[in-house]
Write a structure and sequence with these properties.
The protein has 184 residues and is an alpha+beta fold. The protein contains five helices and nine strands, in the order H-E-E-E-E-E-H-E-E-E-H-E-H-H. A hairpin with a 3-residue loop joins strand 1 and strand 2.
Length: 184
């Protein structure tokens, strides 16, 4: 991943900049993962520092120019949802008291096993995205969004990357047990 050298965000946003007391172990498209610096083995750490960066990705590619404060907004939005759903489902956030270098865009979390599922819900679809959608869903979902620019009644749902869709087939009931869609 490269960053725009003239961008003040790029330097501060880089995992290479380091976080005091934490060791960088992984960078995703927009988040970086750290373990406590005194952890002998990253796999044995029971807590992790999750830092949302200002990087932006589109179609599984990280773009050169970051968006200032995107990491802060992503973190605030995540924390808002975790708070709203606290009585419904447990979450992994332990605290937001993090080093000053990443304050506002990071949280310390329990280490969990990641299940690599990413979904995107779209209300409208057109162009090559529509063509791929129709080709990979047996002609669309019963006419709900299989015409260019037409809104799906409850949105169009599918795995985010076509290669993931081809590799593993995930039934809606497996992801949302007991869920009844708008068509019953």
């Amino acid at each position: 991943m490269s960053a725009d050298a003239d961008s003040p965000v790029a330097e501060a946003d880089s995992p290479a900049a380091g976080v005091p007391g934490w060791r960088h172990v992984y960078s995703g498209k927009v988040r970086d993962l750290y373990v406590p610096a005194d952890s002998a083995d990253a796999a044995d750490a029971d807590r992790v520092l999750v830092v949302a960066s200002d990087r932006i990705s589109a179609y599984d590619h990280v773009l050169v120019t970051p968006i200032p404060d995107k990491g802060r907004i992503l973190t605030a939005l995540s924390l808002w949802w975790f708070e709203r759903l606290a009585g419904v489902v447990a979450h992994h956030v332990l605290t937001t008291e993090v080093p000053a270098a990443v304050a506002g865009r990071a949280m310390i979390c329990r280490r969990l096993e990641m299940i690599p599922v990413e979904c995107v819900a779209r209300g409208y679809l057109t162009g090559s995205g529509l063509a791929e959608y129709v080709a990979t869903t047996s002609g669309g979902e019963g006419g709900r969004g299989d015409r260019s620019g037409r809104s799906g009644r409850s949105g169009l749902r599918r795995p985010a990357a076509a290669r993931v869709a081809r590799r593993i087939a995930i039934a809606r009931a497996d992801l949302h047990p007991g869920h009844q869609g708008p068509d019953g």
